[in-house]
## 1
Amino acid sequence: MPALKQRLEKAISVGHLPTIQGMLTDLEQFANDPHATVEQISEHISKDPSVSVRLLRIANSAYYARAEPVVDVQESVLFLGVAQIRIVAMTTRCVEAMCPEDQSGFVWTDFWRHCIATAHFCRMLGRSFTYPGFNPELNWMAGLLHDVGKLVIAMLAPDSFRKVITKATEEGISFQDAEHKYLDTDHGALGGWYLERQSLPPVVFEAVRCHHKWDMAVEKKELPAMANVADFLARQKGFGNSGNMELVMGPFTETPAWQFLVSNLALRGDPASLQLQLDEESTKIAELIENLLPNQKRVVVKRSAPADPSEPAKGSPPPPSSNPSSNLSVETTA
Ligand SMILES: [Fe+2]
Ligand SMILES: [Fe+2]
């Protein structure tokens, strides 16, 4: 642990590891400026092609089920809003900045699939409860970065990462148990420490630090517990692979973290309707994840020729009585 921490400290100080906070600073002005216009935000976003293309993909994804395709960045800014744009920008920049060399066949794109799914579920869980101080962006950030400690290990000590993966598989133990056995630390501790050095909100680095032991959180346990349940859901529903082969058994409502949440916060609705929502949204979430990842197939929403000759031509607004999505199709291109 001390050796890894020293290497981590040095890597941050000489810029060998990306600074998460730096990825968002250019967008802070828009979050804090109520007078910023859509044109100004769009012009700024357009300078970042990676973010722009993802905004368009997401605005046109089945998740939002729009009747009319969004055709440019300005329209996507208007449709998605600044909060969602910040989340897309944060996710895009993290995924692109932190993708280590392949380690023994470990697929880092699958790692990010797991993290994005966890972010989505973490935000969804936050919205399922009524409690003071809820911030959807912080919930997303905590979910997205909950396993960032694994990236830190892989980037600073690839041999150690490879050893943990191999030993966890050979010995049939969890990733965390293998970390403690062979590294004398775990990715929660390292990830939390890495984010703390970057002045991220304490609620985020505490959630990252304690996502496997949420009950050890020093102050608020809500976000660590939500990150824990979100990680459980992402693994149970098979989104990506974080290298944690521990079996995910039973419904999420039986996890200690969920039990803590329902005992301490007011749940909107009931667990059964949340479960239904989780099941219904799984396909849409899968598409959302693919649209956030780099070098993926591009999702294109196309409007086919009207089946009914009396329908208006392509590009014209549909009549009020028509089903607007019936003649839309989503195509993917390389
Ligand atoms: Fe983890
Ligand atoms: Fe995880």
## 2
Amino acid sequence: MKVLITGKNGQLGSELQRSCPDNIEIQCFDSQTLDITDIAIVNEILISFSPDIVINTAAYTAVDKAESDIDAAYAVNQTGVANLATACKAINAKLIHISTDFVFDGTKTTPYVSGDATNPLGVYGASKLAGEQAVSRILGEQAIIVRTAWVYSQFGNNFVKTMLRLMSEKEQLGVVYDQVGTPTWAAGLAKMLWALVQKSSDKAEEARDKLQVTSDKVEETSDKLQVTSDKVEEARDKIQDASDKVEEARDKIQDASDKVEEARDKIQDASDKVGAESKTLNQTTILN
Ligand SMILES: NC(=O)c1ccc[n+]([C@@H]2O[C@H](COP(=O)([O-])OP(=O)(O)OC[C@H]3O[C@@H](n4cnc5c(N)ncnc54)[C@H](OP(=O)(O)O)[C@@H]3O)[C@@H](O)[C@H]2O)c1
């Protein structure tokens, strides 16, 4: 099983590399080696590595900056994601795409589920939702969209590291308390993503096995068909032989019948001659 990972230097990309299972071959890219906004590069790399699965962790993640950097946010989070989905479709690879709770407006007072109505409040959330929609449109069931929230890890910047740093620097901290969220440990999320990959791999293996069984049965049926066909051929040859012999016998009978006819004609001729001679003899006797 070959897996291509985008955004390898990000929080999630780093954790995915650290926890990659032994039976999986990975190829990981940063924005320099695989800029997902560049369709030509995306196609070239996906075709040459030919992965079974692509995990897209690459994203424009600067939530506040996105409000004034709209084109850049959409270029990565919508166009770049659509590029990956299109290339995945071309090479028949599965896409596991990471999205965000920011596609919701946050007004729900119970935990969100995947079917809840989306309503992003900012550019980052709207661009990520546009990316999700592109993935679903292009790949349908061939893609999995995983929405996560408040990702933290030892890598990059995140609120846990910020809090730890501020706590070591200050006596008192002023922190917003009007937000509710579920912090997600990037290592835990990576583990869950590898489990998803493993499940896909098992399904692919199962489908391959079923195909093998079907192929074996086809082979077996074809062999049986060949045996039957050989027997039919053999029977046809025997019938032909018998038919040739019947033809031969018929010819012999015809020959014999012709000879009998010929002999009968000769007997008739001889008989006619004997009759004529006997008549002449009678006339001679009378004259005498
Ligand atoms: N962090 C969160 O709290 C959070 C919350 C919800 C959802 N998410 C989603 O989870 C995923 C992973 O997040 P993360 O925290 O790991 O993000 P991250 O640490 O900000 O990493 C994102 C990576 O995307 C790469 N990238 C940006 N533009 C790119 C481009 N044009 N082509 C290729 N790569 C590009 C960057 O690569 P370079 O470093 O090489 O430039 C960066 O390493 C993202 O989809 C994000 O939207 C994150």
